[in-house]
Amino acid sequence: MIILGIDPGLATLGYGVLEKDKNGNVTARDYGVVLTPKEERLPVRLAILEEGINKLLDRCEPDEVAIEELFFSKNVTTGMAVAHARGVALLTCVKRCGRLFEYTPMQIKQALTGYGKAEKRQIQIVTANLLHLKGIPRPDDAADALAVALCHSFTSRLSGLYTI
Amino acid sequence: MIILGIDPGLATLGYGVLEKDKNGNVTARDYGVVLTPKEERLPVRLAILEEGINKLLDRCEPDEVAIEELFFSKNVTTGMAVAHARGVALLTCVKRCGRLFEYTPMQIKQALTGYGKAEKRQIQIVTANLLHLKGIPRPDDAADALAVALCHSFTSRLSGLYTI
User: Fold this and answer.
1) Sheet holding B64-68, edge to edge
2) Do B43 and A79 touch (CB under 8 A)?
């Protein structure tokens, strides 16, 4: 089974692709980021983002997609931009893969470390260890996307099934 | 020239379609709302929204689209949901119409009444009067969408031209 994890963002959207075998063993297949240029206007950036996500879906053909929920940060303007991008990510993914699951940052931390308020760095180290990676994946957005995919691989639930 | 105005929202997205003739006279051609069911999950609602906007674009074939920017309201959760929906609206529109323009609530108020802090009710009355409507368009979202389309019809600018 292929799981695609997504850490939504407008300038940088992180993705991580995991393969889970019948015994529950999980391997990293791919990770990286989709970038949109800051000098473009928002509608164009959203169109670039959609194109990037569609190419990613073509390439990895996920059975399930796990996407991080937004943490309401200090910066409302950034939060709003990310929410625009996340809307596009959810739309693009649900049109291609009905098995779409959402996780809060706290759920991800809890699943990976048993502690919902773990530090970002700790999550990255656990992610690298669990996936037998030589170092922490870069950039952070890709590491975060692998973490949400890992969180999903540990979590059995049926609440993300969509029919559109 | 056909101008489509959009007041973005997740549960209710308002739209208003204006025709502007060579003399600058503006007539309302259509207005209404695209609804998404509250009981559905966010990704499905976004897909329903996209479908509704595409049908609207099929029907009115706008030359230009004007869409309201978000006002950062008291309620962050609602604001985030609207930002997801607005991301989908911008994406769907820019893929079909490169002449896409954004206006803040203050710009709309300023254009319609000459006063950037005018009351909502006052904007609605001005909108109805300018378009020779018998009453204030209902629901509010449709009235707001007509207002952003009217604002655009009064505003000459080239800053909304996109090529994707």
Assistant:
1) B26-35, B12-20, B2-7, B64-68, B100-103
2) no
